[in-house]
Amino acid sequence: xxxxxxxxxxxxxxxxxxxxxxxxxRRDLWARLARLPLDGGATFRGRRVLGDHKxxxxxxVMAGATAAFSGAQAAFGSCWPPVRALGFDHGTHWLxxxxxxxxxxxxxxxxxxxxxxxxxxxxxxxxxxxxxxxxWLADQLDSLVGVLCLMALVWVPPLAVAAALTLLTLAxxxxxxxxMVALGLKRRVG
Length: 190
What we know:
single chain, two-stranded antiparallel ribbon, mainly alpha, 66% helix, 2 strands
């Protein structure tokens, strides 16, 4: 199997969970969870720690959907050997593996959100001046860093896999943002 195909297969549960999250937001499912910010409204230096856009709903959907899609991959792979060959041998059952990926995605976004709140950058807004490109890049890759960190608890991907995941993230993350802008769920891509 090609590296690209295997990396896409590796990332697919998180990508599909992101798409699921878009549907949940669009249909306003589990609205009560959407009103529960992960930071519980806490402040630091008079500013919100994470803000209202990092919600319990988002964390639950990303972790749960990533685990569910990891389970679907495992089931599909057990029925069809060519698909099984796409997977990397990380030696972990699909449920903890999916939870690691989903939770890693959520946790990876939190430091960047916290820094932006402390710099008075509103959720969804661009950082001012020279910080704008830096925060754009951080917005694209922060979740990947979280995924790689938690993934490393059970499997450290080879450098080529990590590099390919980075390139894939730089393509998929903005594409998902475009979908959210088109659906009126976000104001801008970056």
